[in-house]
Amino acid sequence: MTRLFGTDGIRGAANVDLRPSLAFALGRATAYRVVGAGGSLVVGQDTRRSGDMFVAAITAGATSMGVDVHGVGVVPTPALSHLACEGEFAAGIMVSASHNPAEDNGLKVLDPCGLKLDDDLEDELEALVLRADELPGVAPAAIGRAVNATALLDRYVAHRTSLAQAVAAPGLHVVLDTANGAACCVAPAILRATGARVTVIHDAPDGDNINLRCGATQPESLMEAVLAHGADVGFALDGDADRCVAVDAAGRLVDGDQVLGILALERLARGALDHLSLVVSVLSNGGLQQAVEAAGGRLVRTPVGDKHIFAAMQVSGAGLGGEKSGHVIVREHAMSGDGILTAIELLRVMTTAGVGLGELAVSIPLLPQQQRAIRVRHRDQWEADDILQQAIAEASARLAPHGRILVRPSGTEPVLRVMVEGTDAADVAAIADAIAALAGQRLH
What we know:
There is one protein chain. The protein folds into 3 domains: 10-148, Alpha-D-Glucose-1,6-Bisphosphate, subunit A, domain 3 (Alpha-D-Glucose-1,6-Bisphosphate, Chain A, domain 3, 3-Layer(aba) Sandwich); 156-361, Alpha-D-Glucose-1,6-Bisphosphate, subunit A, domain 3 (Alpha-D-Glucose-1,6-Bisphosphate, Chain A, domain 3); 369-442, Alpha-D-phosphohexomutase, C-terminal domain (TATA-Binding Protein), CATH 3.30.310. Helices cover 37% and strands 20% of the residues. The chain is built from 14 helices and 18 strands. Helix 3 (77-84) packs across helix 5 (153-165). The radius of gyration is 22 Å and the shape is globular. The two termini are 22 Å apart.
């Protein structure tokens, strides 16, 4: 049976794959295993039409187990994480499918520290979800209450605003794309606290337009807006605001690895990069590694997923980590990725250095990199095919010493993902195409 929890909680098409009955069961299971009768759970959502439905189902499930549910309404995922770790709540549940289209939704359970649950606890919750009706409820007098806790969002806003106020950016013009998502109501005011002039786009959510031709995964309209307004920089958040992509004054998208590099090099220069380490996933560009190492730092690589990034940060003592997709964790200020915080940090570096984002990005030259996604039936058997393995080995030798090939099966689709990196762009593209074609033949 397919695992219920993926790399970022439970996701699916709302009311089709992901139904309110599952949210009800998760509310009961979380209340039983993580919170306990008499405890409190905090629940938030993004701007999707289906959000209210799922919050209602979670609330019904958890209150039936004697747990009070504090609904904070529409909030960024990092805001819910911030509230969950303040000590009042035994857990949090965020209703969001992040950068996915509006018809999808998701359920993400957070622990008392505002972090994603470890795999073992998720497995326990999954088993409980499947038999949620068998869990012992509470007597009528002990049923939990649904609490309107929307005012709690002010705590998150106050914290991030205090960080923004430490950035003196009165001369900068920023374009902000809030993806018609959860950051609409908070991000503009927070970024304006830096002193910058902020022009906001895609900030009119209607339940169906979240991430629609906007946001971190579709930044084309942001690129156009930066040029149209003559702005200094642009930031695009995703639907739940845990990731951020940046655009320079020339309307060019700045690679997520360059964003990480900009933040890491600035910290290295002032002796503030904890353990001289930056944590990234295996997908991050070798050019980032070369730039960080040349400045006296080191790169720690993990499997894909911000859960793995944070775990490695805990073990290594690193204070900065993230993924090229726009998830950045600044451990000094937050325990999870926060797109608003990433924007604040970039504005801080820009104002301190007195140069634009494009000029900062030049200090992290990236190696040519190509990725391919091949739809195959036997994606998990790629290591068992001798012919494919030989081709990968020969191509790897051809790319050495400054190139690499990464092959990994998708955890959610019948897809094998191939990443090829090297010093020659044409060679990298040819190798990526050849390996993709061979994998398609051998693993069909």
